[in-house]
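Why show two proteins at once? Because comparison is the fastest way to build intuition. When a single record is shown, students tend to memorize it. When two are placed side by side, the eye starts asking what differs. So, the first record is below.
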Amino acid sequence: MESTDDISHRDYTRLSELIYNECGIKMPPAKKAMLVARLQKRLRSLDMKSFGDYIDYLFAPDGIKDELVRMIDLITTNKTDFFREPDHFDYLLQWVLPEWSQKHGGCGKKLMLWSAGCSTGEEPYTLAMVLNEFAVSCPGFDYQILATDISTRVLEKAEQAVYDEERIAPVPSSLRHKYLLRSKDKSRGLVRVVPGLREKVRFRRLNFMDGNFGMREPMDIIFCRNVIIYFDQSTQERLLNKFYTHLTKDGFIFMGHSETLNGLDVSLVMVHPTVYRKITDKPLAVINT
């Protein structure tokens, strides 16, 4: 008899197909143990005796409505750090921002940056620190960061902007003193991002499988790092072409150092290791492919 310690082949197939269809993430048999481990606590909280019961609940009309987001929260991977892959921030500061500022400085335009797959917020707050530092040396420069993730759980933490002290080790000491506030209760070992920086980041939930991302204006820069590795090649290509349509002319996409566009039909040119630039306009119809 199936229990909360195991899941039948049929139920695992149904669940993995649902996850792929809803959020594009592949769940091959090799990930079965990981999925079972992550969902066991949820089954216990629902007082369910088996994965069969959980699958029946999940596929019922009320289950899809109430449980799908919770389930996605549990199965998504959310590894992140402040100043992760620091070479990207150096390139942003030394090349991308000066060029953008020279082109748009003085016209009142804000630089629009999207942290796609922002997890618990370390990446967008790192970007806010870097952009704020650039603004100090470039009067008139302004920016706005959109940070999105499929997981409501990590977005709640990101909006709180509270982190354990050991998490901020990669942040240079000069930026720590400027942008991070220590808890009044030193024994708690917590810091919080300063209000001025939090105001520059807007968080919202977004599923990359949605047909419409709901963007009101194009993005100058998209950071989507260590995200597409969880998708198959056709989903990667479709997603990157959607990103393409949301980029301004000559806009940039930053990807993770373990990711590549090799074999993908996307009109982006590499200008720096895992940094790509839009090179031509495509018909807007590509949004719906």
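Second record. Ask yourself what differs from the first in the token line.
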Amino acid sequence: MYLEDIVKALDLKVVSGEERLAAEVLGGYVGDLLSDVMANSKEGDLWITRQIHQNIVAVASLKDHAGIILIQGCKPAADTLDKARKEGVPIMVTDMPGFEVIGRVYNIIAAKKGPDPSI
């Protein structure tokens, strides 16, 4: 699954990192506590959060996330947007509540992966 597919499916507004929309999304992570995201998210995850400060860019870069979705109409702070553009970190925004975004992203990724053979 590619980031550009999720952007289209959820009608997300891309505010930075347009050049990386071909990134592969391997999973997702939801959280607003940076230490939790650093400890538990994985490379290729799409991070869903309400945080808007520039430290989200540092965490996304450190963990090599596919991108960040800001929910509930949150917009990145000016310094966050600057840093994201410099580092090429995709940030998308939506007015949707987190619960809806999480469910939709999960369903998109699960449909692409197909049924779990271990079940």
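One difference worth noting in the second protein: The longest strand covers residues 45-49.
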